[in-house]
Amino acid sequence: MMGAFGQSIAEASACVGSVSPTALTLLSDDQLVGAAQVVEALARQVEALQLGVAREVDNRTDETLGEDSLARKLGAKKPWGALETVTRTSAKDAHARVLEARRLAKLPVIEAAVERGVLGRAQAAAIIEPLTESVDRAETALVAAACENLIELSRVLPATAVVEAAEAWKLILDPDGVEPVEKAAVEKRFFRLGRAKDGLVKVSGLLPVEQAAALRAVLDAYVNPRAGASVAFTPNTDEADEPDEPDEAAGATKPLLVVTETQPPADTRSPDQKRADVLHAVFAAAARAPETPTMGGAHPTILVVVPQEDFEAGRGAARIDGEDQPISAESARRIAESGGYQEVIVGPTGKILNLGDTQRCASPQQRRALAVRDKGCVIPGCTMPARWCEVHHIVPDRDGGPTDIGNLTLLCWFHHFTIDTGPYRIRMGDDGTPEIRWVFGSHATEWVKAVHTAKRDLTPAA
């Protein structure tokens, strides 16, 4: 009945049966390595049986079986409860075994490798976790190829290393899966300063990968032991305009705007979300400041790598150097729009075939001119000052829009992130200044001159 499982276990047991844990101290290094491999092979066979048992208990506990449910016969409601009763393992482990068996069923190639004892639970989990969400949207043949490749890697690499390869396959199987995760992350972002206690203030928060990368780039420059000895965190006084800085709560008080037929709604971000955006803006501005320490001769820079075809199409995924999780190709295009990009053509062997010049990047002189004209983010109600804004191409570069003052305006990071999907529309007026309108469904305001709302303008008259 046990078939190959029983035979494999018997063979493995015979190899280790004469060795007790206390006898391991008598083994040579070579013998100890061999013993570790044999014991692990035995453990994989046992884990395969454990998951097989969990799967079968789960199958025999289907709610449609009624009184014939195995769990009910054992006095439990769920399959993991029955497994806990029979095996005397913990409730957490019993639950994990059932869920792992269910996930394995979605990847038959991985399930077969576990049954053969090729993969253990930890190795299988390293593959299953990243791929589970992608398998339903990817081609069957491509999923099978991914699984076979990851199984081969698991033969020579530890589970933690296989995770990185599985994450790479996840992007290949479902390149569009990054974008919804990224959008959900933007909604969850926050930054919070706690109350002072014992002379300390607790800082907490969650930042999207892109924002965290901007912070990390500047922080790395300041803690870099090779950075210049004299550093200071001060505003960039090269800006021609010096609007008021956001208050301590970073916009915690909502702008006093009334929604009418012609007036757009007020900023809907929460105070915590605004704090996160301000923190990101401060660090992004610091990266451009001349007094910020350099790293390798260059100011703190976010290095984003994205395939050319994905960059041009605005779909797929991109990687930020130093960050574990990807960002969308659309976000990579937005970063390039604000900070410029450099084309690097790489051959199939990894050899660099061509290194282009930096393109589509507003110059410091253009940023100063925009600061004078726009004064800050041009979205109504947004108080982000010019030096903390990003440069936005009104007509995108991909559509032939030039990097000229007549095609540029200032947006804060959040409104730059949502300008293509949000309710605001921007165009350049005949007088060479940006105009803005708000559109939602069949409702729209008239085109009006974009006027930055400084913090002082939001204070009601006495």
TrEMBL record:
Which key words tag this protein in UniProt?
Endonuclease, Hydrolase, Nuclease
Task: Look up the signal peptide feature and give its range.
Answer: none
Q: Which family does it belong to?
A: Belongs to the Rv1128c/1148c/1588c/1702c/1945/3466 family.
InterPro entries from the entry?
DUF222, HNH, HNH_nuc
* Record region (Disordered): 233-256
> Lineage from the top down?
Bacteria, Bacillati, Actinomycetota, Actinomycetes, Micrococcales
Record-annotated HNH nuclease domain positions: 365-417
**What Gene3D superfamilies does its record include?**
1.10.30.50
Which stretches are tagged as biased composition: Acidic residues?
238-248
Q: Which GO terms describe its molecular function?
A: endonuclease activity
- Name of this chain's protein: HNH endonuclease signature motif containing protein
